[in-house]
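Our preliminary data section would be incomplete without showing what the modeling component actually yields. Below, a chain of 229 amino acids is followed by its predicted structure, encoded as tokens that our downstream tools consume directly.
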Amino acid sequence: MKISFVLPALNEEEAIGLVIDEIPVQELKNKGYDVEIIIVDGGSTDKTVEIAQSKSSIVKVINSERGYGRQYKLGFKEATGDIIITGDSDLTYPFNDTPRLIKLLLNNNLDFISTNRFKHLDMRNMGIVHFIGNQILNITTRVLFSINIKDTQSGMWIFKRNILNKIELYGDDMNFSQELKIEAFLKLKTIEVPITYRSRTGHRKLSTFKHGFKNLYALFKKNRLISKK
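Predicted structure:
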């Protein structure tokens, strides 16, 4: 069995090397897994690509148009693993915890695991405005789609690659994350598990208000699309 790590990146030279180093490649190989790491670069102008390429022979860097969703869609097409694991390239997500999450996925015959940053959140790692914006999106998602999800915006997912032909994804930007989870909770055998979440390394690129309102609008648009079927 093969594991594909798919990581979108944009100007993450301060963190990308640390992120790759944290992926427990040898531990997974010892458990019998093949591993590949795909960095989907959205046009970095710093040393992100250079650092990523220097880390390991199993790291593959591919170039993409900017856009969180666009980067993931391309990364998923390039991934050859039976299981795909995602996360941002800013050191916020605990890639060292992936062996446990893979075991959870397989032992429970799950299709998709979403992660919840909030159960154990240290508020020093997330600004209050960003926290409130996330909760508005979480509540709206629960109301519109009647799914029990606590964190619609988390960027760490663990899922079987074969589910990609069972779901419909339209988002090209930050709304991709919430859309993927909505599809998973509605159509697949899915659970949400708590993880530790750290403050980002490097400069923040997410605009809380701009992306927050876009994601809120996208939720209502997604709801209309589903209602028409």
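The beta strands are 2-9, 34-41, 59-63, 83-86, 112-116, 157-160, 190-194. The radius of gyration is 17 Å. Preliminary results of this kind motivate Aim 1 of the renewal.
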